[in-house]
Amino acid sequence: MALKNLLSNYKARVEALSPLLNERARRLFVASEARAAGRGGVTAVSNATGVACSTINCGLAELPGAEPQPASCIRRPGGGRKQKAETERWPALSRHCFGFYK
Domain limits at 26? Predict the structure, then answer.
């Protein structure tokens, strides 16, 4: 019975704060909830919130040394999608191929 109340509390807190948090803040928040829950906390928080265990474990690893980041920076440097120029291997060939469609 107490476990059900605990899980519903986790879910309610995450749902209330989720629209206000970015990826990193959400990861750190659920990691702190899992740490506070003690043994089995990662699984309990994962089941209650739908956040993957691997995400919570990454947050737990990041939590002790978490430093504030600028508001404009969510991901680590180098994270996210690569620029189009970096992913395009043969620009002349793609210009030639796309020329047929015009």
Answer: 2-66
pLDDT at 101: 56
Quick check: pTM over 0.85? no
* Confidence band of 76 (pLDDT split at 50, 70, 90): low
Residue 96 lies in a domain: no
Q: Please answer whether residues 58 and 33 qualify as being in contact, where contact means their C-beta atoms are separated by less than 8 angstroms.
A: no
C-alpha span between 37 and 88 (Å, rounded):
47
pLDDT value of position 7: 72
Domain count, the chain: 1
In a domain, 38, yes or no: yes
